[in-house]
Design goal:
With 406 residues, the protein is α+β, with helices and mostly antiparallel strands. It has 13 helices and 17 strands. It folds into four domains: 112 residues; 59 residues, SH3 type barrels (Roll); 87 residues, Alpha-Beta Plaits (2-Layer Sandwich); 83 residues, Alpha-Beta Complex (Conserved hypothetical protein from pyrococcus furiosus pfu- 392566-001, ParB domain). It is elongated.
Length: 406
């Protein structure tokens, strides 16, 4: 709901309650003593007029608060948060007026005094602590509906949907997906926990909810630095042009040397709730531009670069005297387990499960046929067998002594 709609609704409600109050007071002045409550001596019309006046006052305060917050460039949802407190106080005042009008104020006071000790004990419990936190959040407004917040101690990130007297409702971010996007799973966080939790607000300014993000690209040492930097800057500038116009902050590059390449860190301003989508578009554009730029190459572990891997694969074909990699059945391979550490096998299995088998094993084809013996890659073979592989890439050597020596 926009700010104008908030103000319009408060203005309409104020007009209705004010007109009702004025009508009741005028009617009471014209017909004094009409429908008088004997217990308190208060006329019903006057009682209704007082109730309407209280409600009109709450709406008037709400309207004025919206105007003040507008001058301070606060989002309209903050005015609604404060309005809830005004309405709550107005309801309590209306109840007191009704009790007084019915002539039971003394009995209500005695009842409250009788159970005051119990109320004090109850106030130490979580519900009242949660209500106190609700009042504090509504007044201080460290976060608001629509903000993206994180509870580091709970490992929880979410978009605030509502802040109630007892619970804060979050739409969880991440969780079932490995990305900073809302997944539609609502989480109730007890307000009482807010007194003991650190809360990080990603969108302090809802009108401009931007944060700094980065995309990391690893290039080879023989790539052209200026071309690579221009590709990254152009990609971010193209995707985030509207954000650059709003913030005035342009993308920039930071870099680090790595074992097998240079880490180019592209940093740019992004919208908090669109972070994953914007990063995807930038990554895609960078990839497409690198493919069209021969002087920039991506560094890949073990074979140094993507293009070097393709060139080596073409150069190392079977017609150039290099052994061909074959897929052989694991059940037909014999492997000595002497000296193998189970923990090392477990570690290699995890690596293969995550990245695949980066280097084939080397086996010796035995004379009896159909049976192979592992010459190199015992750990890799046992790890693949542990993962349940049926076949494994291997370089097959002949059965002569020279192959065994190699």
């Amino acid at each position: 709901m926009k700010r104008a709609e908030y103000r319009s609704r408060s203005g309409r409600l104020f007009a209705v309650f004010a007109a009702a109050a004025a009508g009741c007071f005028v009617a009471d002045a014209v017909w004094p003593g009409l429908f008088v409550i004997e217990a308190s001596g208060l006329a019903v019309l006057r009682l209704v007029g007082i109730v309407a006046s209280i409600l009109a006052g709450a709406e008037l305060f709400s309207f004025a608060t919206q105007k003040v917050l507008e001058r301070r460039h606060k989002p309209p949802i903050e005015g609604m948060m404060v309005r809830r407190i005004y309405v709550l106080l107005a309801v309590l005042a209306v109840l007191m007026v009704i009790v007084y009008g019915l002539g039971h104020l003394g009995a209500f006071g005695s009842f409250f005094a009788m159970f005051g000790g119990m109320l004090l004990g109850w106030s130490l419990q979580a519900p009242v602590s949660g209500f106190a936190a609700y009042l504090l959040v509504s007044l201080k407004r460290p976060f608001r509906p629509g903000d993206r917040v994180q509870f580091p101690n709970l490992g929880l990130t979410g978009d605030v949907q509502d802040i109630g007297p007892m619970y804060t409702v979050l739409d969880q971010v991440g969780g079932s997906v490995g990305s900073e996007e809302a997944v539609g799973r609502y989480i109730l966080v007890p307000n009482a926990m807010l007194f003991s939790q650190v809360v990080i607000n990603y969108t302090v300014q809802q009108e401009a909810p931007y944060i700094l993000d980065e995309v990391v690209v690893r290039i080879t040492y023989d790539s052209d630095w200026e071309s690579a930097e221009r590709i990254l800057i152009d990609a971010a500038t193209h995707v985030t042009s509207d954000i650059i116009e709003s913030t005035g902050q342009k993308p920039y590059i930071r870099s680090d040397f790595w074992d097998y390449g240079i880490l180019m860190r592209l940093r740019y301003q992004t919208r908090v709730k669109d972070r994953a989508e914007i990063a995807y578009k930038i990554n895609k554009r960078i990839f497409e531009m690198i493919q069209r730029t021969p002087c920039v190459d991506l560094a890949i572990p073990f074979i140094y670069s993507f293009r070097a891997g393709v060139d080596r694969k073409e150069a190392e074909g079977p017609h150039n005297g290099y052994p061909e990699i074959q897929q052989i059945e694991i059940d037909h391979v014999q492997c000595s387990q002497e000296g193998l550490d189970p923990k090392a096998v477990e570690g290699v299995a995890k690596s293969i499960a995550a990245q695949g088998l980066l280097q084939p094993i080397v086996v010796l084809k035995r004379p009896e046929g159909g049976v192979y013996e592992v010459l190199a890659g015992h750990l890799r073979f046992e790890a693949c067998r542990k993962l349940g592989w049926k076949t494994i890439p291997a370089v097959v050597k002949g059965s002569d002594r020279n192959d065994r020596a190699r």
